[in-house]
Structures are given as structure tokens and as C-alpha cells.
């Protein structure tokens, strides 16, 4: 295989700018077809983005022999079904986060890969953005010494603008998303802790639906002990006053601290009472660096930028905190 020929299942909002256009901008990559159950919307997307083929049935796209890789960009409730179908056909898979509805489904995907020629990358795309690569470099270079502990907080009002509003508001429908906004936003944060600092040994958590605004938990609290002994704690609340908005990850080291916003683009490094601020702009198509790495992985040019077993570990954390 010299070129990755893509088909997208689920050409919704996330594919308009964040990911979709990048498949034709990455070297050795081409977008051949898209699928959406609403035929009118599938056709409209294909025409606007100059995609040769469109379908309203996923099996029709999967049966296109010219396609050798599938981007699954549907809500989590159909990730398992489409991933297993693609893997059965030995097509490579770029799978949106969260990996599935729960860890049990994610495990099924991991098992299916063992008897297939398919390669699968989970779309934890922040791993490849310049800002988070910089944070990882700072940690690895010992900029703030040995990491002692991590404090993560995401506090948002009801109706937060961190998510895309959809007609059916599926992100707060547990049968479609797996839970509430925690399930949609926390995977980014938890994966970065895993990426920066390594795997975890133990985790404990609690979740509750305080506001009863929808049928899903809106406050989640979690504690993680990493295998290397680093202690982490996280608090997610989606029902606070607007003035309490917080998006903050703090890494405390023996020589100082690093503070950053997961959904922003600034890094603060504090040492000896002095703070330095780094601002790194994200690319227009924020998933393009990850798609580039995924294409290179599929073509055998580099290691997997986010393997299925790593996605599974994040799903296990999510289940632990919200179960």
C-alpha cells in the first residue's frame, strides 16, 4: 500500500473543519467517499468538499474495494459495530474518541484486531498538537524536576460552549454517548495524562447527576495513582456558575509547576517565583498532525500514535470514575 484511501463513516460537524479536509492535505492520503444516514446531508458534504462518492449506508462504503482505511466519526454508540465491520474486511481504522460506549466494547475491538491485518489508531489528536508535544518535552527534559502530582479541573456552566450543539443533543444521551459531557470531554484530558506521564496502577471515582438537567451525571470526581507513583486528581462539573469556568491542568514538580488549558493554547511555567508563558497556535484542521502520523503508521513508516490498548485504558478510567 502506497496511498491510504479513506472512507468516512459519519460526516457530521467534527469532520467539517477539525478533521475531514485534512485527509486530502496529508501526503500519501486521499479521501474517496463519505457516508451519512441522511442521504441529503451526505450528498451535500461530498459536493462541498469535492469527495467523489457518498453513501447513506455504511456497508456500501465498507464494500468499496478501493477504500483501504476507514475514519469512524459517528457517536460512540456505533463505534463497536463499524470498527468490527472494518476490521473484518482488513481495512485500517482511525477511530474517534471515546473509543466506544464503555471498556467492554473497547476490549472487543482490541480482541478483533488480533486476528486481522487491520491497524487501528484512536483519534486522541491532542497528542500530536505542537502545544502538547511541547509540554511532553518540558516534562521529559526535567524543566520542573521530578513530577510529584497532578491536579485537573474542568468546571463549566450548563450549556457550555466547549461542545458542538446538535439537534438531538446526543452528548448527554447515555445510550448514544455512554454518559454525559464527562464522557465527551474527559477522554482528551485523561489521555494526555497517560501520554505525558505513563500508565496508571489504581483509580477510584464518584459520579452524580446533581442538576437533573438531563439523564446523565454532571459532576465526576476521580483519583489516579500512576505506576510510577505520581498522584493525580480530577474534578469535572458541568453545572457551575458561569463565573466559575475553569479549564486547568497543573503538573507540580520538585522544581516548579506547569499549568495549561486543555481546550486553550497557553502553557505557564513557574520556577523560583517567575512565570513564563508560551502560546502555541493550533493548526486550522486540528486533527491534521494526528492524521499525518496515522497515515505514516498505516504505511509502515512510524509507530502507532495512539494504539487500541491505550484507548482501552482510557475507557477503563472513564468507567471507573462514572460507573
Give keywords.
globular, 323 residues, alpha/beta, Rossmann fold, 6-stranded parallel sheet, 2 domains, single chain, 8-stranded mixed sheet, Dihydrodipicolinate Reductase, domain 2
Write a compact overview of the structure shown.
This protein has 323 residues and is an alpha/beta fold. The chain has two domains: 4-126 and 286-307, 3-Layer(aba) Sandwich (Rossmann fold); 131-281, 2-Layer Sandwich (Dihydrodipicolinate Reductase, domain 2), CATH 3.30.360. The chain has ten helices and 14 strands.
Topology, element by element:
Blueprint (H helix, E strand, L loop, with lengths): L3 E6 L3 H4 L12 E7 L3 H10 L4 E3 L2 H5 L6 E4 L6 H10 L3 E4 L7 H11 L6 E3 L7 H11 L6 E9 L18 H4 L3 H17 L2 E9 L10 E8 L4 E7 L8 E8 L3 E4 L5 E6 L2 E6 L8 H11 L9 H15 L1
Parallel strand pairs: 1-2, 1-4, 2-3, 4-5, 5-6, 7-10
Antiparallel strand pairs: 7-11, 8-9, 9-10, 11-12, 12-13, 13-14
Helix pairs in contact: 4-5, 5-10, 6-8, 8-10
Amino acid at each position: 500500500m502506497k496511498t491510504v484511501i479513506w472512507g468516512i463513516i459519519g460526516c457530521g460537524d467534527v469532520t467539517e473543519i477539525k478533521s475531514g479536509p485534512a485527509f486530502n492535505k496529508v501526503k500519501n492520503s486521499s479521501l474517496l467517499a463519505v457516508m451519512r444516514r441522511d442521504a441529503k446531508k451526505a450528498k451535500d458534504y461530498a459536493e462541498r468538499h469535492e469527495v467523489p462518492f457518498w453513501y447513506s449506508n455504511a456497508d456500501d462504503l465498507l464494500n468499496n474495494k478501493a477504500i483501504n482505511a476507514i475514519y469512524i466519526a459517528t457517536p460512540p454508540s456505533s463505534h463497536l459495530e463499524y470498527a468490527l465491520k472494518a476490521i473484518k474486511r482488513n481495512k485500517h481504522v482511525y477511530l474517534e474518541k471515546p473509543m466506544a460506549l464503555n471498556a467492554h466494547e473497547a476490549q472487543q475491538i482490541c480482541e478483533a484486531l488480533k486476528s486481522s491485518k487491520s491497524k487501528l489508531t484512536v483519534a486522541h489528536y491532542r497528542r500530536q498538537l505542537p502545544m502538547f508535544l511541547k509540554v511532553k518535552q518540558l516534562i521529559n527534559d526535567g524543566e520542573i524536576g521530578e513530577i510529584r502530582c497532578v491536579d485537573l479541573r474542568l468546571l463549566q456552566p450548563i450549556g457550555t460552549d466547549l461542545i458542538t450543539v446538535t439537534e438531538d443533543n446526543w452528548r448527554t444521551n447515555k445510550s448514544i454517548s455512554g454518559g454525559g459531557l464527562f464522557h465527551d470531554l474527559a477522554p482528551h484530558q485523561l489521555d494526555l495524562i497517560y501520554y505525558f506521564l505513563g500508565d496508571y496502577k489504581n483509580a477510584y471515582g464518584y459520579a452524580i447527576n446533581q442538576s437533573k438537567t438531563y439523564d446523565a451525571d454532571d459532576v465526576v470526581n476521580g483519583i489516579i495513582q500512576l505506576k510510577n507513583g505520581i498522584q493525580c486528581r480530577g474534578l469535572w462539573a458541568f453545572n457551575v456558575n458561569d463565573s466559575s469556568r475553569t479549564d486547568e491542568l497543573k503538573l507540580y514538580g520538585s522544581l516548579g509547576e506547569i499549568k495549561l488549558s486543555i481546550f486553550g493554547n497557553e502553557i505557564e511555567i513557574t520556577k523560583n517565583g517567575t512565570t513564563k508563558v508560551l502560546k502555541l497556535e493550533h493548526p486550522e484542521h486540528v486533527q491534521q498532525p494526528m492524521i499525518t502520523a496515522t497515515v505514516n503508521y498505516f504505511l509502515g513508516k512510524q509507530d502507532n500514535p495512539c494504539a487500541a490498548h491505550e484507548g482501552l485504558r482510557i475507557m477503563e478510567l472513564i468507567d471507573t470514575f462514572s460507573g
